[in-house]
Specification:
Radius of gyration: 18 Å
Helix content: 55-70%
Shape: globular
Number of helices: 10
Order of helices and strands: HHHHHHHHHH
Strand content: under 5%
Largest sheet: none
Distance between the termini: 15 Å
Structural class: mainly alpha
Length: 212
């Protein structure tokens, strides 16, 4: 996504965090067929997702605005391809980031099941899990993280283990499940998962964008 600006000529910037790193006029030379693919809406959404992520500490309100725009773009992409796993995951992750930032300043950081933003995040997590190919490790892993943030710890552990069954080399999941065990006081067992996460970088090397 971040490389989209590189082929548009010397007048365009390759810095994805500028105000206008690309716009729809940049697509004219690509051709009509590509311009109307949902990849464009997804790329716009991912850009605003990254903009929000980049400023979430210094400007949390600004980050929320970028998340809202990202969600709108992802919705546009899903209108033409409602079962696209990658877009569903992007939508779920953006919702989760937005909720995390809102809850960060609250004394009780556990996501409320009555919060409609939480309901939406779970909806997209589940849709991603059931989209083909079903039950992939990354979708299961992200849903496990979501369940943990909701305080649904028994279900979270089930999904961490399902994710690791689907891909024992999921370094991000290995680390997060280790932290899950450590928080529960099972430090010796947690250390085993931390070691496996450190030693196993297969997932990290193949899909580095998913482990940020």
């Amino acid at each position: 996504m971040m490389g989209m600006t590189w082929g548009f000529g010397p007048s365009r910037t390759s810095n994805f965090l500028t105000d206008k790193p690309f716009d729809d006029t940049d697509l004219e030379a690509i051709g009509e067929r590509v311009k109307h693919m949902n990849i464009i809406a997804h790329a716009h959404g991912y850009f605003y997702h990254l903009k929000g992520l980049a400023i979430r500490i210094d400007d949390p309100l600004g980050a929320q605005k970028f998340y809202e725009i990202a969600i709108e773009k992802f919705e546009d992409a899903l209108n033409t391809d409602p079962n696209n796993k990658e877009i569903l995951l992007s939508m779920a992750l953006t919702h989760m980031l937005a909720i995390e930032d809102i809850y960060a300043n609250l004394s009780n950081a556990v996501f409320s099941p009555t919060d409609q933003r939480v309901v939406k995040a779970e909806e997209y997590c589940l849709r991603a899990i059931y989209a083909e190919p079903k039950y992939d490790s990354f979708s299961l892993f992200r849903y496990a993280q979501f369940l943990e943030k909701c305080g649904r710890l028994e279900a979270a552990e089930d999904y961490y283990l399902m994710a690791l069954e689907a891909d024992p080399n999921n370094a991000g999941c290995l680390h997060c499940y280790g932290q899950f065990l450590s928080d529960r006081g099972e430090h010796d067992l947690a250390e085993e998962f931390f070691k496996r996460a450190s030693a196993n970088t297969v997932g990290l090397k193949q899909w580095p964008q998913w482990y940020h």
